[in-house]
Each structure stands twice: as C-alpha cells, then as structure tokens.
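Record type: monomer structure entry
Structure origin: computed from sequence
Chain ID: A
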Amino acid sequence: MKNLKMMAILAAVGLTLSVGNVAKAEVGYIDYAKVLENYPAAQQAVKELDQKGLELQQFMLEKEKQYKGLSTPLQKQNFESQTANELRSRQESLARMQQEREDQILQKVQAAARSVMVAQKLDAILADQIVFVGGVDVTDQVLQQLRGQ
C-alpha cells in the first residue's frame, strides 16, 4: 500500500514536470513557398521541368505536321496509336522526373531544417500555414543552410 502511494506521487510529479516542459516548448516555422522561390536548386529544377514540357509541346507540333501528310485512314489510325503510346510514355517520364526533383528538394530542405532546429534548440519546425500564433520564423536560416550545402 505504501509503495502504491509512492508510485502515485512519483507519477504525479513526473506528469507535472512533463507538462511544464511542454509549456516551454519552442517551435519554429518555415515558409516553404519562399524557400522554393529562393533556393537555387529548386529554381534549376523548375527550369529543367519547363524545358522538358517545352520539348513535349514541340513533339506534339511535329506529330501534327506528320499527321497532316498522311493520306490513308489506316496510316492515320496507326500513326495516332503510335503517337498516343509515345506521348503517354513521355508524359509518364516527365511526371517521374518532376516527382524525383520534388523529393530531392524536399529532402534537402528537411535536412537543412533539422540542422537549424538543432542549432536554434527548437523542439519542432512546422509549415507556416499550420502556425496560427507564435513560433519563430526560421525560413531565412534554412535558406542560408541550403545555400551553404
């Protein structure tokens, strides 16, 4: 019985201490859109993706010209089928490339944010849309970290 009371007291003290620590939690937040706008690697990825998109448009223009030169319905049907398959393949390739670039950028931003979190002794870094009031804006520190990599 004595041990049970002692455990209850210790649990209450532990709960009080943990609630006290939560009250002192420091949270940072990051404006991810600003990071993407100002991070050179992200800007380069956008340029690469735009270039691939332009290449896809050029492909379609060339195929239109070729289509107009076909004379029989069978030739047109075969051409449409081949073109549709090739277009789908190119679109899938572009989508994969976009996903890979987004993942690479996100991983680098997360690594930089972790580094800033440790340096600033923060408990967490959230997206700025999540923070309603309070917190510390660490966007510029994350950008500095990214540029230093």
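Annotation 1: The beta strands are 27-30, 124-127, 136-137.
Annotation 2: Residues 6-10, 15-22 have pLDDT under 50 and may be disordered.
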